[in-house]
Design a protein that fits this description.
The complex is a heterotetramer, with 2 copies of chain A (308 residues) and 2 copies of chain B (270 residues).
Chain A: E1 10-12, H1 21-24, E2 34-36, E3 53-56, E4 59-62, H2 70-85, E5 90-95, H3 100-111, E6 118-122, H4 138-149, E7 156-160, H5 167-176, E8 181-184, E9 188-191, E10 193-194, E11 199-200, E12 206-210, H6 215-228, E13 233-236, H7 242-251, E14 255-258, H8 261-264, H9 268-282
Parallel strand pairs in A: 1-2, 1-14, 2-5, 5-6, 6-7, 7-8, 8-13, 13-14
Antiparallel strand pairs in A: 3-4, 4-12, 9-12, 10-11
Helix pairs in contact in A: 3-4, 4-5, 5-6, 6-7, 7-9
Chain B: E1 16-29, E2 32-38, H1 40-45, E3 51-55, E4 68-71, E5 74-75, E6 80-86, H2 90-96, E7 103-110, E8 121-126, H3 131-142, E9 148-153, H4 162-169, E10 174-177, E11 184-185, E12 199-203, H5 206-219, E13 223-226, E14 242-244, E15 250-252, E16 259-261
Parallel strand pairs in B: 8-9, 8-12, 9-10, 10-11, 12-13
Antiparallel strand pairs in B: 1-2, 1-7, 2-6, 3-4, 3-7, 5-6, 13-16, 14-15
Classes of the chains: A alpha/beta (308), B alpha/beta (270).
The structure holds flavin-adenine dinucleotide (2 copies), flavin mononucleotide (2 copies) and FE2/S2 (inorganic) cluster (2 copies).
Chain lengths: 308, 270, 308, 270
C-alpha cells in the first residue's frame, strides 16, 4: 500500500495524536500502522479561543483552529522526533492551506526531508480565493490536486469532507487529478449552544463533529468513494473497535484511522488491530485484503434512496 | 514560541493509562463523592496539583463518555488514588454512579504539579478545588510540615465532611461559607492574610482565581493557580485545552498547566 | 407563526408519527404544537425492503423508501382523521416527488382540502430529471420553490438537507423563491455494514441517520440558515429534551420538531414543551420569542472555521 | 391495499407507555434472563402473542438506546409483566443489566395476538421464541385447558429452567436440543406429529418458521407464526418493520403482526 509496509492497518488520525511523541510513552507506536500528524500550514497558526472541545451526543466537537508550528517549526521541532523514533509505523503529514500556493509551498518545503511517507491533504479548509472550502468545490479541488501532484512523487492522499451532496463525485475528481489515495472522512460542521449563557459553547462558535456519532456517515462515504474510483481509501470516523473498522474495510477501506476514540482510550488503535486479527483468524480469512470492499449486495436490493 | 509541546514535561513521570477498580465511593457532601481507585502506578507517581483523566473507556459501545479531568485528591499506601468528584453535568453524573468493583480508565499523572519547594504555603480552595490541597496537605503532614488550608463553599450542605479531611490530611481547614451556614460567613478570600508572605496556591472557580491574582498582585505575593479548561486528550496532543498566556500565546492547560504561576497567565482573558 | 396559533412550539417530525392517529392514544396530541405527516407522493409508494431501521451510535438509520398511500390514499384514508380529531395542533403535510411536476401535483391536489395548515416540502429526494437531489441543487431548488409558490397560498415550508457545503446558501434561495419557512434538518446519508454477513444491514444499503448524533449539526444548520435569511425556522435533529430544543431556539428556530426521540419515549414532545415552559419561568423570560435567535457572540470570537 | 394502517388493530387494547420498575430478574439460562416488571396496565390488557417495546427512555441523555421488542412472556396477578430476555447484541446486553428497583419504559401491549379460539393447539418454540407460549400455556392452564409445548434449544446450557416453566405455566414442555445435551436430540421440528390436526403456533428463528410453514403446507395444517423484524416505533407509524406479504405488499410486523397466519406471508421472501 502506498509503496510501503504497514505493521497494522490502523493509524492514528490527524489532530488526535499531535506529532506522535506523547503517544510513544502510552502505546507501542511501532506496532500500529502509523500516524497522521496534526495539520501543518506554511506559517505558524495560533488557533482559536477556548473552549475548543466539548462532548456531544455520541461524539465530540472541536474547533482547534489548526494551531500548529508552521512548516519551519514542524521541520525543526517535530520531524526529527518522528525520524528518530519510528522504525515501522508510517507517517503521513497532514497539510493545510488557505490557497493552492500555501499547500504547494508546504509540500515542496517538506519533500526533501526524511521521516515520513506521504501527505494527507486536508481540504476541509476555507479557500481564501474562492470563498468555499477546497473540499466542496469541484474545480478548486481538481486544480489543487493537479498542482500538488506536480510537487511530489510521494503518496498524495486527499482527505475528503463529507459536507457535499455526493462524496463519490469528489473521489473521482481526486483520482483523475492524480491523487494516490483518499481519506474519508473529516468532521461535520456543528454547533453547541450554552443555553445558560446564551452563547455558543465553542470559542469559534462552530466546530467539527467527530466520534461514533458519525460512524455510519463515514462508512457510507467510504462506500461511495469506492464505487466511483479505484484509489486506496483510509476509512475514518467514529471507529472505536474492530467491528467498526471492519465496516469501513468491507465498504472499501484498506486502512483505517482512529481519532476521537484515542481520547477515550489511548490504547484504542492497538485494540482495534488486535480485534481485526482475531476476526480474520476466527473467520478463516487469510489476508485483510480479501475483505477490502468485499461487501455483497443483499438479495432484492433496489436503487439506493438516501432517506425517508 | 508557538509550540511548547511536551518539552515542558521533562522530569515528570510518564503518564500511564490503566483500567482501575473502584475500591470505595462515599457521598461526602451534596452531589459530591470521594472515590478511591486501585491504581498503584498512578498513586506512586502523582504529585500534588497533578490530575487524571477519568472515563469509562470503550468496552461498552453504547455508553459514550469522553474522559473528564480530576485532580488527584490523595494517594494511599496501598496504591489508592482518591478523587473528589462533584456531579455537575452529564459526564460527572455518570462517573458519580460508578459502583464499587466496577472499573474506570485512568490516565495520569498529568500536568504540572504545584512547585512549593519547601516554602511556607497557604492553600485557597473553592469547592472541589479542595482536592489537590488534600493531597498536598497529606504529603506535607507526612513530611512533618503543615500548610494553611482555607476552604470555601456556598453553604453547609456542600462542605466536604471535615472528619474525613482531618483523617486524610491531618489538617483542619479554615472553613468559609457564603451563607454562613457552616464555618465563617463570607467568601474564602476573606481568609487571606495581607501580612503573610507565604506562597499562595489557588484552586477553584475562575472568579476565585481572578480575585487571588488581584490580591497577589496588590500584595506582591507569589501565587500558583490550577486552572480549568475543557480537555480532549489530557496529554498535549489535541490542543483543546488552551488558556491565554501572559505573552499572548495560547498555553495548554493539560501540559503547560494545569498549575501556572499567576504571572504566566493573561488575567484579562481568563 | 405561519398565520396560526401553535399550542406548543414542539411538533412531531415527519416519518416518525405516521399520520397522527397512532399517537392520539398515547399523548394528548392537541397539547403539542402539531405534527408533520409522513411524506405524501403523487402515486402510492411501496417502500424499501427490510431491514429498514437500525440503531447507530447515538442515533438510528432508516431507509423506509417513502412508503405512503399516495395523494388520493392520503386524502381518502388519512386526512379525514386529522380533520376530525385535531382541534388545536397544527398539521403540515410533508410532500415528496421525483420531479417538480410531482410536487406541484400533490400540492394542487391537496390545496382545496381542509384539515391541515401548510406544506413541508421534502427536497431530500432524488430528482429524476437532474440526477441530484432537489435539496442539493441550487437551480432545481429555486425552480421547485417558485413553482410551488404558484400553486398555493398556504404556508410553504422547505425542509433543508444538511448534505450541502453551506445550508445558508440554500436557505437564502428558498426565501428568494417565495417560501414561508424552513425546516432544518433532514437526515444524513449513512450506511451500516453487517460484518458477519458482509452485507449492508439496511435493505436499501444506505439510509438516513437521525437522532442525538446529529444534534450539533442541526443546531449549526439552523444558525447558518438564520444568518442568511429571515424566514421562520423549524429546528429538527436529535432533540430529546428541553435543553436540546433551546439550543435550536437560541440558534434561530421558532418551532422545533421531535423525531427519533419519540420512538424512545412517545411522551418526548410533551416533555420537551413542559421543560421549555419551566426554563422560561425559571429564567424570567416572558415569551419564547425573546429567545429565538438570541444567541450572543462570545467575547473575542473570530471568523468561523469549521474544523481542525 | 398499500395502507392497512391501524384499522387492523380494531378491538385490541390501546397501547400505553409506562415507566415501570423491575421487580425481579433471574438468570435462567446462558445469557438469558427472566425479568418481571411492575406494570399493571399492560399486564391487564396483554394477550398471548403480543409484545412490548422495552427501553430505558430519555432520562439519562448519555445512554442512548432505541427500545427493543420483546414478547410478553407472562402476566402476574399483581400486575407483573414477565419478559424472557436473551442478550444478543448491544441493546439486549444493556437491558439484561437492569437491576431490581431500576425502571424501564414499556410500551404495550402491541401487535396482533395468537388467535386460538378454543382450538387444540401445538406450540413450537425455538429459543426465546418460548416466551409467548409460556404466557399462552399459563392462560390456558388457568382456564383448565392444556396446550402441547415443543421447545428446542442448541444445547442444555441455553435451556430455560424447566422448574420455572412448570411453575409459571403448569405445563411441561417437550424439550429438544441440537446436540442432545438435554431432552431429545434434534431440531424442535422433530417433535411435530404429522397425524395431529391441532392448530400450529410457531415462534423462533426464521429457519424454524420456514420449516414450520413447509410442514403446515405439506400436511394441510393451520399455522400462525410470530415473526421478527427490526422495529422503530412498534405502533405502526414508522413503517420500519415490514415483511413481505403473500400478496406482494409490505406488511408491518408491529401492527399487522407480529403474529400472522402463515398464508398471509410470502415464504419465499422471509
Ligand atoms: C485540571 C482539572 C482538575 C479538575 N479537578 C476536579 C476535581 O478534583 N473534582 C471535580 O469535581 N471536578 C474537577 N474538575 C472539573 C471537572 O473536570 C468538570 O466538572 C467536568 O469536566 C464537567 O463534566 P460534566 O460532564 O459534568 O459537565 P458538562 O458541562 O456536561 O460537560 C460538557 C463538556 O464540558 C467540559 N467541562 C465542563 N466543565 C468543565 C470544567 N470545569 N473543567 C473542564 N472541563 C469542563 C467537559 O469535559 C465536557 O466536555 C477539574 C477540571 C480540570 C481541568
Ligand atoms: C415481536 C418480537 C418479539 C420478540 N421477543 C423476544 C423475546 O421474547 N425475547 C428475546 O430475547 N428477544 C425477542 N425478540 C428479539 C429481540 O427484539 C432482539 O434480540 C433485539 O432487538 C436485539 O437487539 P440487540 O441490540 O441485542 O441486537 P443488535 O443486533 O445489536 O441490534 C441492532 C439493531 O437490530 C435490531 N434487531 C436485531 N435483531 C433483532 C431481532 N431479532 N428482532 C428485532 N430487531 C432486531 C435491534 O432492534 C437494533 O435496532 C423479539 C423480536 C420481535 C420483533
Ligand atoms: C481535536 C481534533 C483535531 C483534529 N484536527 C485535524 C487536523 O488538523 N487535520 C485533519 O485533517 N483532521 C483533523 N481532525 C479530524 C480527524 O482526523 C478525523 O477525520 C475525525 O475526527 C473523524 O474521526 P474520529 O471520529 O475517529 O475522530 C481533528 C479531529 C479532532 C477530534
Ligand atoms: C423512520 C423515519 C422516517 C422519516 N421519514 C421522513 C419523511 O417521510 N419525510 C421527511 O421529510 N423526513 C423524514 N424523516 C426525517 C425526520 O423528519 C427528521 O428530519 C430527522 O429524523 C431528524 O430528526 P430526529 O433526529 O429528531 O429524528 C424520517 C425520519 C425517520 C427516523
Ligand atoms: S487536552 Fe489535549 S492538548 Fe490539552
Ligand atoms: S415498528 Fe414502526 S411501523 Fe412497525
Amino acid at each position: 500500500m502506498f509503496g510501503a509496509e504497514f505493521p497494522s492497518p490502523v493509524l492514528l488520525a490527524s489532530g488526535t495524536c499531535g506529532y506522535g511523541q506523547e503517544y510513544a510513552d502510552l502505546i507501542p507506536l511501532d506496532e500500529i500502522g502509523g500516524l497522521v500528524t496534526k495539520a501543518v500550514s506554511l506559517e505558524p497558526r495560533p488557533g482559536n479561543p477556548p473552549h475548543r472541545v466539548a462532548e456531544t451526543p455520541g461524539g465530540m466537537i472541536n474547533a482547534i483552529g489548526l494551531e500548529n508550528p508552521g512548516l519551519r517549526g514542524f521541520i525543526a521541532e517535530k520531524l526529527p522526533w518522528l525520524r528518530e523514533h519510528l522504525r515501522r509505523a508510517q507517517v503521513f503529514v497532514n497539510v493545510v492551506g488557505h490557497s493552492a500556493e500555501d499547500f504547494a509551498a508546504v509540500v515542496r518545503g517538506l519533500d526533501g526531508e526524511d521521516g515520513f511517507l506521504g501527505y494527507e491533504i486536508n481540504v476541509s479548509c476555507p479557500n481564501v480565493k474562492g470563498g468555499t472550502m477546497f473540499g466542496t468545490d469541484e474545480r478548486a479541488l481538481a486544480d489543487l490536486v493537479t498542482r500538488l501532484r506536480g510537487c511530489t512523487e510521494r503518496p498524495l492522499v486527499i482527505k475528503l469532507t463529507p459536507n457535499v451532496p455526493d462524496v463519490g463525485d469528489f473521489a473521482r475528481i481526486c483520482e483523475e487529478a492524480g491523487a494516490d489515495g483518499l481519506s474519508a472522512i473529516n468532521t461535520f460542521p456543528g454547533m453547541v449552544v450554552d443555553i445558560g449563557r446564551r452563547e455558543p459553547l465553542i470559542g469559534n462558535r462552530s466546530g467539527g463533529v467527530s466520534g461514533p456519532a458519525i460512524l455510519p456517515m463515514g462508512v457510507y462515504a467510504t462506500w461511495r468513494a469506492r464505487q466511483t474510483c479505484g484509489l486506496p481509501i483510509m476509512g475514518i470516523g467514529g471507529i472505536r473497535n474492530a467491528e467498526d473498522a471492519l465496516q469501513y474495510i468491507l465498504a472499501g477501506a484498506c486502512l483505517v484511522q482512529v481519532g476521537t476514540a484515542s481520547f477515550v482510550d489511548p490504547g484504542a488503535a492497538v485494540d482495534v488491530h488486535e480485534g481485526i486479527s482475531k476476526f480474520l483468524a476466527a473467520n478463516g480469512v487469510a489476508r485483510l485484503e480479501d475483505l477490502v470492499g468485499a461487501l455483497r449486495s443483499r438479495p432484492g436490493t433496489g436503487p439506493a434512496i438516501p432517506a425517508g | 514560541m508557538l509550540s511548547a509541546g511536551s518539552d515542558v514535561a521533562v522530569g515528570r513521570a510518564t503518564p500511564v493509562s490503566r483500567r482501575a477498580a473502584l475500591l470505595s465511593t462515599r457521598l461526602v457532601a451534596r452531589d459530591t463523592w470521594w472515590q478511591e481507585f486501585d491504581c498503584p502506578d498512578i498513586a506512586a507517581a502523582a504529585l500534588p496539583g497533578q490530575f487524571v483523566m477519568l472515563g469509562v473507556g470503550l468496552d461498552e459501545p453504547g455508553a459514550w463518555l469522553l474522559p473528564r479531568p480530576f485532580s488527584v485528591g490523595w494517594t494511599g499506601p496501598g496504591g489508592e488514588v482518591g478523587i473528589l468528584l462533584r456531579a455537575y453535568g452529564q459526564g460527572t453524573r455518570a462517573l458519580a454512579r460508578l459502583e464499587v468493583g466496577q472499573t474506570a480508565l485512568l490516565l495520569g499523572p498529568l500536568g504540572r504539579p504545584f512547585d512549593t519547594a519547601g516554602a511556607d504555603v497557604e492553600c485557597v480552595a473553592g469547592g472541589v478545588g479542595l482536592a489537590p490541597f488534600i493531597f498536598l496537605a497529606a504529603r506535607e503532614a507526612a513530611a512533618g510540615r503543615r500548610v494553611r488550608l482555607i476552604y470555601g463553599e456556598r453553604d453547609a450542605g456542600a462542605v466536604f465532611d471535615p472528619a474525613l479531611i482531618a483523617r486524610l490530611t491531618d489538617h483542619d481547614p479554615e472553613l468559609f461559607t457564603e451563607d454562613g451556614s457552616a464555618g465563617r460567613k463570607g467568601l474564602v478570600t476573606a481568609g487571606l492574610d495581607p501580612a503573610s508572605r507565604a506562597l499562595l496556591l489557588g484552586c477553584g472557580p475562575t472568579p476565585l482565581l481572578r480575585a487571588l491574582a488581584a490580591f497577589a498582585r496588590e500584595h506582591g505575593r507569589r501565587l500558583q493557580v490550577s486552572v480549568e479548561e475543557h480537555m480532549g486528550c489530557g496529554i498535549g496532543t489535541c490542543q483543546g485545552c488552551v488558556v491565554r498566556g501572559a505573552d499572548g500565546r495560547w498555553v495548554k492547560a493539560c501540559i503547560e498547566g494545569s498549575v501556572f504561576p499567576a504571572e504566566e497567565l493573561d488575567w484579562g482573558a481568563i
